[in-house]
Amino acid sequence: MKAPAHHGVVLVLTNPERTHFLLQRKDASYPHFPRGYSFFGGALEDGETEEAGLQRELAEEFSEEVRVLLRTPRRRRFSGWIETEQFRFKISLFESTLSHDQLQTIASMPVLEGESADLIAREKLNGLAYVWGLEQLVPVLLGPV
Fold it and tell me: What are the structural domains, with CATH classification, of the chain?
């Protein structure tokens, strides 16, 4: 039986050439998917807008120093359903572009949730173990903007 649906909102960070992407690495105790990869973000709360939910989630996951860097324009890359044998939920994926140096700076800083922020080369995106069926979003990341 599938878990009840919710609406998730996530952010992927990339450089202008889209050759590297900053992803969240969950910690070893993360239920169902220890040390799996995800995007920064999470489930919306009742009545919350996508923007408000994303801001709240980023505040839970990053220090203020990092959040200052994340005040860049975002573009919606995808909005639709993720479905696996166990899960079904709506997800909205946003993308922000930062310089490669900024991405490296963020990756070197501790995160407040999860194990780390990992800078992943484009050609390695398909080989990662993602949480909650999020590998279904990789073609969106690899496709045209």
Answer: 7-142 (3.90.79.10)
